[in-house]
Write a structure and sequence with these properties.
The chain is mainly α. It is built from five helices and four strands; from the N terminus they run H-H-H-E-E-H-E-E-H.
Length: 159
């Protein structure tokens, strides 16, 4: 099951890379969401691996909230980031001061990959009466994120 989670995580990264390579805009909405799915699957593999390492048996009890329910996304995401470099999480750096520029149109805070950002990349929403979709992503940071996660998955497979 651990290897299946790792394979699924790698496939989400491949999907994200394909979507990203086909996109000519500065927003990579669905590719960002795919990366978040990859992170959650990687977190799931890490949790299962820890349970297996701590068990004296070949069979482990899987935590109920690992496969759904309230907080499952955050649980897996938090676990994944214990293995990943925090610098990879930043998709775009703050470029403008919120006191001087409208945050609906300018990057006035660091944009970090998270479960919440994933939702912003998948669903049209309204903020202050303006339809929104996606988050700002710096291309070089996105490429570094993809490579960084894949490197950690490969390290995980070796250990």
């Amino acid at each position: 099951m651990i290897e299946m989670c790792l394979l699924n995580s790698s496939q989400f990264l491949a999907d994200a890379n394909l979507i990203h390579s086909q996109n000519k805009r500065s927003k990579y909405d669905h590719s960002v969401a795919s990366v978040q799915f990859a992170i959650e699957e990687f977190g799931k593999a890490s949790i299962l691996n820890k349970e297996l390492q701590e068990s004296e048996e070949d069979v482990i009890e899987v935590p109920n909230n690992l496969f759904g329910g309230r907080g499952s996304h955050q649980l897996k995401e938090t676990e994944a980031w214990t293995n990943l470099s925090p610098e990879l999480r930043v998709l775009a750096r703050k470029a403008f001061e919120p006191d001087c520029f409208d945050p609906r149109f300018f990057v006035t805070r660091d944009v970090e990959l998270s479960h919440e950002e994933r939702l912003q990349c998948l669903f049209v929403d309204f903020k202050d009466g303006i339809p929104t979709l996606g988050v700002v992503v710096e291309n070089d940071k996105f490429i570094k994120l993809l490579k960084g996660i894949e490197e950690e998955i490969n390290k995980f497979r070796i250990s």
